[in-house]
Design goal:
- By secondary structure, the protein is α/β, with parallel strands linked by helices.
- It has 11 helices and 14 strands.
- The strands form 2 sheets. The chain has an 8-stranded mixed beta sheet with strand order 2-1-4-3-5-6-7-13, sandwiched between helices. The protein has a 6-stranded mixed beta sheet with strand order 9-8-10-11-12-14, sandwiched between helices.
- The chain starts with 7 loop residues before the first strand and ends in a 5-residue tail after the last helix.
- The N terminus is likely disordered.
């Protein structure tokens, strides 16, 4: 059995202050087994700050407790590649052992990843990839396939077709681009048309304003598509206020607490749910293996055997998606409860 270091889990929310980054931290200290032991230090950097990341942190904490390592989660407070880069470079300077990144913008963060790898810090991506970088692997949703799943759901909700408008934080984010492309591929050859997609810079108020503008300007809209986790609740609230529930279909991504409430009330028609708990758990699991084994191929092979996930070409590990509707939401919530989480 390999020696394990004591486990400290620090979950931090980043706040940008004038010239520096402040943070709030929660620490959980696992019992030590005696003696001085070197802790493996792993950092997970998200692409924003929303309830979507809560289950990711629960999964990361669980893996850290099992493996005996230190995990730090950092959430940028803005959709800023520069801020994400600043956070990453902070931990590069500390010479942590591994970093997992949900990439905000691959052109900016890709070179940062390459520099981390060159310096000896092991890097994977999760949730949003930088496929052209030297990252070791990607863990998360195959976002093109998730977009296709959304398109298939749209075809069931709009059998006669119609105009669809999308809403997203940043269309330049790799996961956003892939979801849009997958959606378009799925509805190709039908009468469903994705007319336009509006950016909101991950600002819920801006997202709602975008929805309100579409409802006012396009009376013939048939569906509103929320591509990021917070978009669904903003769409539902705007549609409800406009008195158009039941007249405009709502399709979104993820199952944040407010999305779940809207599903229970039948105000959202369907959502494509990812597995953020798995993002956190599996990212820590794989990084720990790469760091402690010192052999990427061996680490990936062991990861496949232990996790049950297949490592596809490009070292892509797809955690999959589900379609949740008002009809199956209660069954889905029972599954989340078994993981110790309330949203996804």
């Amino acid at each position: 059995m390999r020696n394990r270091g004591m486990c400290v889990v620090m979950l931090a929310v980043v706040a940008l202050l004038v010239v520096g980054c402040g943070k709030k931290e929660q620490s959980t200290q696992a019992p030590t087994t005696g003696g001085e032991q070197k802790k493996v230090r792993i950092v997970l950097v998200t692409n924003g700050n929303s309830p979507f990341w809560d289950p990711m942190e629960v999964g990361a904490k669980k893996a850290a407790e099992e493996l005996g390592c230190e995990v730090i989660s950092r959430r940028p407070t803005t959709d800023s590649p520069a801020l994400q880069r600043q956070i990453i470079e902070e931990y590069q300077a500390q010479k942590v052992d591994g970093i997992g990144i949900s990439v905000i913008e691959s052109d900016t963060i890709g070179p940062v990843i390459d520099d981390l790898m060159k310096s000896g810090i092991k890097v994977i991506t999760f949730d949003s990839d930088a496929a052209n970088s030297k990252r070791i692997a990607y863990i998360g949703t195959n976002n093109f396939q998730a977009g296709k799943a959304a398109g298939e759901a749209a075809k069931k909700l709009l059998p006669e077709g119609g105009k669809v408008f999308g809403f997203v934080g940043n269309q330049n984010a790799p996961n956003a681009r892939e979801r849009i492309a997958g959606f378009k591929e799925a509805v190709k050859g039908t009468n469903i048309v994705l007319v336009d997609v509006f950016d909101d810079n991950k600002d819920p108020a801006k997202a709602r304003a975008n929805v309100e503008n579409v409802l006012q300007a396009h009376k013939d809209v048939k569906m509103l598509l929320g591509l990021f986790s917070y978009d669904g609740p903003q769409i539902a609230a705007a549609v409800k206020e406009a008195g158009m529930l039941g007249k405009v279909k709502i399709l979104c991504f993820d199952a944040e607490p407010e999305t779940i409430n809207h599903l229970k009330r039948g105000e959202i028609d369907a959502t494509v749910v990812q597995k953020p708990y798995e993002f956190g758990y599996r990212s820590v699991q794989l990084l720990y293996k790469v760091i402690t084994l010192g052999d990427v191929d061996k680490a990936l092979k062991e990861f496949e055997q232990e996790s049950g996930y297949k490592v596809a070409p490009g070292n892509v590990i797809d955690t999959g998606v589900e379609i949740i509707t008002p009809q199956n939401i209660e069954e889905y919530l029972k599954k989340l409860e078994e993981l110790g989480i309330k949203s996804s």
